[in-house]
From TrEMBL:
Record bears the keyword Transport: yes
Keyword ATP-binding annotated: yes
N-terminal signal peptide: none
Key words of the record: ATP-binding, Cell membrane, Membrane, Nucleotide-binding, Sugar transport, Transport
Protein name: ABC transporter ATP-binding protein
Alphabetical list of PANTHER family matching this protein: ABC TRANSPORTER ATP-BINDING PROTEIN, MALTODEXTRIN IMPORT ATP-BINDING PROTEIN MSMX
GO terms of molecular function: ABC-type transporter activity; ATP binding; ATP hydrolysis activity
Source organism, top-level taxon: Bacteria
ABC transporter domain location: 4-234
Lineage, broadest ranks: Bacteria, Pseudomonadati, Pseudomonadota, Betaproteobacteria, Burkholderiales
Amino acid sequence: MSNVSIRSLQIQLGANKVIDSLDLEVDAGEFIVLLGPSGCGKSTLLHSIAGLNDAAGGSIRIGGRDMTYADPKDRGIALVFQSYALYPTMNVERNMSFGLRINGTPKAEIERRVARAAEMLQLGPLLKRKPGQLSGGQRQRVAIGRAIVREADVFLFDEPLSNLDAKLRTELRRELKTLHRQLGATMIYVTHDQVEAMTLADRMAVMKGGAIQQFDTPDAIYRAPENLFVASFLGSPGMNLFRGRIETDGAIRFTDGHMALDLSHYPFRQRPAHGQSVVLGVRPEDVEVSAGGACRAPVTLVEAMGAHRIVWHDYHGTQVAAIVQDDRPGGAFSLRAGQVSLFDETSTQRL
């Protein structure tokens, strides 16, 4: 396994500068997820690590070696694409071993590697089948197996589960995490699916506009988003946002004209100014629904989710989601002051 070090990377596609001066440090053996909406540059970054995009500036080092301008075959990487890209006339065993055979790997070594990958991915009974005889999930396992047999230093995954249905995505997500523990390899995984990111990542980089907005553990990003984009992008439903201002006469409070929330224990990075325009964010699970709630708001929708319900309130024109575990009626709620996030309205950065 190898670390990946990216410094001041610039990627230009035609006249469009997709990535400008990006830094990223991936430790050896880490599972890193690049998360963001379509067009944010996450796949471009992954393809640049793989050597499929030429760097216009900066450096990419893999295992301490400068790979900025190295050919993909010399980088010690294995790449799994969204499409399976299997050879339809070859059986599973030959699909998995094709690259090794082309490189002249000894037959005994090929057999060892294929057998090991097949055992990890439960492909043993399928080795003699052709892709047309496999389900979508089985085909993706074969594509992953083809990467595993390379015994690469770094594994790169470009949205490998996006073509699968929800049940298969859940199964393969679990298998990928188990596979990472078994291999102990460095893995970098691209997705726009926040559930995949939260469950798979040791650390994740949330991207927007070709730049990393925040790079930390999933829990740290979820609990303390660095800016409004991260706060609103992560979570389902997303973070509830209230616009208002700070009052510092006496205790520090947030007010929006309808409620006043004591922020005396909020870990401000620097003391806010009196009257400063801010956005207060709170996750739906930190909205407490109760008859005696401080904020009165009619219920507009209740979504039954099985183990819990999402109760939507119309709070002076703003839709506020609350996650409740029972059948209590809505109509009033309070915010857990110890779980809120505050952002400057102008800069959108966390306070």
